[in-house]
Amino acid sequence: MEPTTSVQSDLAALYQTGQAQLHQGQFLPALKVFQKLLTLAQTREHSDDITALQVDGLIEIGKIHRHLQHFAWSIKCFERALSVIGPADNSLKQGGIHQEIGQVYWISRQYSPALRAYVKALEIFQHHSDLEGICSVLNHLGEVYNAIGLFDQALRSCQKALMILKTLEQMPEPCPRLSPDQKALILYNLGVTQAQTRRYPQALAYLSQALAIQQQLHRHGQSPETSPNQVSTQKLALQSADTLKQMGTVYLFQGKHYPAFEAYQKAERIYRTTGQLEPHAEVLDYLGIICYRRGNKSQALWYHLKALEQFKTLENWINQPEKLPHILTVYRQFNLSNEGVRLYRRSQELIEILGSEVG
What is the DSSP letter of 350? Predict the structure, then answer.
């Protein structure tokens, strides 16, 4: 049997290789490397260090599956990591895994289990007085509370997160587990909450601060020395697009069509270049609404048709009738209901030719 130190070195090397591939966006090659790490760890006698690397490998595999939207597999990996750690262990690592599980449920829009996972993580972080963990989880809780309409709880959670972050920023030592965009994420969630409660000036103030941080990080980048938990350039760009989109919506609610159109246009360019189909379609739809309200109905129709084209590429888009109610208004303005009658008559002719069994 190989010496434990030799196996441990091999596992550590595999883990570093997988991390490097993840940083370059090579998710499938990284998945294979981490799976190889697990296979090697399972065939060797375990020490505490080998067990820790096995847990880390499971966590990374869970994150990759989450990124690939393999949500059931992601949950299984995180739960397996918890079982390797052991139920009696109340460590920060366990709190972090519960937070990762909450992220899977959040992304897959399963809000109740997301809430339970985040609360469990918060309990562990509070037990250890871990301010970094508490700050991060409180912000995630704010997201969930926003999604389920509990805006007061969302506001309190995000305000507490921002207060803790300001305390952490004043500490002499850096916070390795907090990502550089953490403040922008908290400010964004505060802006969303204020917008939901129709406090539009406050919403725009928070969103503008978030956008300034995101754009600065995107322009200047981050050095590994000052930002050990780096954020990818594409992720920062998408965060900026989300913030611009939310700002456009706030301006639209205020009836300020010009700044709304400008914000949506900037978000549209980012979503288009990064291939984000659903938010891109939503922004195109909003641009159509603004054109219609400003009396430019032909331009409105163009935007709505482009949005419809995008929505049709999404899975189950037909089961989301709320996506494009605005296009019907524009159709009526152009008397396109006559086109609908023509198509209906053509379908009747086809039924007569092909038989009454045709749907």
Answer: H
